[in-house]
Amino acid sequence: MDFPAKFIENMKTILGEEFYQYEKSFEEGRFYGLRVNTLKISPEDFKAKNLFDLETVKWCKEGFYYGEGIRPAKHSYYHAGLYYLQEPSAMSPAAVLKPNKGDKVLDLCAAPDGKTT
What we know:
With 117 residues, the protein is an alpha+beta fold. It folds into 2 domains: 1-29, no CATH class; 31-116, 2-Layer Sandwich (Alpha-Beta Plaits), CATH 3.30.70.1170. The protein is built from 5 helices and 4 strands. It has helices at residues 5-15, 19-25, 43-48, 76-79, 92-97; strands at 32-36, 55-57, 60-66, 83-85. Strands 2-3-1-4 form a 4-stranded antiparallel beta sheet, with no helix packed on it. A hairpin with a 2-residue loop joins strand 2 (55-57) and strand 3. The longest helix is centred in the N-terminal third of the chain and has 11 residues, at 5-15. The protein starts with a helix and ends in a 20-residue tail after the last helix. 15% of the residues are buried.
């Protein structure tokens, strides 16, 4: 992946020796994920539908990996709001923070929706 020289310089300053691991990570494949909307269906009931070949995200009980080439955004359950497409690493803040009903959480890392749901 080609990045502007200024970006690379800044990242080397920020990451130090870890920059080379960061740079190498761009050679790896990406992960595809979805998160079940537990207001509409339980993760167990969703997985039992066998819509896609799913693997549970270990840090998010309602999160699942799916394989490349699968098109979950084309399924009617996606349009009905049974699940949300989300990169698995983006599921970690809510899983780690474990907000309770009534808690206020400010997400400064992304556009609205995603982790908010």
